[in-house]
Amino acid sequence: MSGSASNSVLLIDSHPISLTGLRTILDNCPGLRVVGVARGGSAAAVRYRELRPDVVIVNSHHEAVEALEVVGALLQARPPLTDANVLVLVNDVEAAAGRVLRAGAKGLLSSASSSQELAAAVRIMATGRSLLIPTARQEADRSPLEQLTEREVEVFRLITRGYSNAEISRELTVSQSTVKSHIQKLMEKLGLRNRVHAVIFAYEKNLIRSGT
Fold this sequence. Notes:
This protein has 212 residues and is of the alpha/beta class. The chain has helices at residues 16-27, 41-51, 65-76, 93-103, 115-126, 150-160, 165-172, 176-190, 195-204, and strands at 7-12, 32-38, 55-59, 86-90, 107-110, 131-132. Residues 134-141 have low confidence and may be disordered.
């Protein structure tokens, strides 16, 4: 598998209408291409062997049932397809997280996510990283950044623009150890695990927009 400029996707969805919609969305995202589709677990394993996509997306309509079937088919194949990067779309992330991730999926995303969030999730997983997007929502009239200090907000915004620690250090005229301290604190406050999750979080909360 590779995290090349063009990331290949195998799309699994048992509903023809939503399958067509998802394929259209993904094919219109720069750097992504749907190389194949399937409607169930056994077909998913066959198509995966043929295509070796970077990411397998499973659109699970009934909680996690369909996702578990597909992940099980991939891992129970002979030999097991343990290198499959499976991203599951599910209505209730918090309810499904335990079962889906224990089954062997490497990513989980809310079905209500935007096309931009979906594309970002695919790109992250294509590099081999796991992904779990939290679904807890802040109150509508409050910004999630209110719990951060002014300096932590500055660091957060630079992180979402792709700045390295060294670049943040130069931009804010502080030491790199200070930058690391700010990053650790803001990640803890926002419940984020790493920088890529910070970018997804920023898009999800409309804190940054495409092209900024």
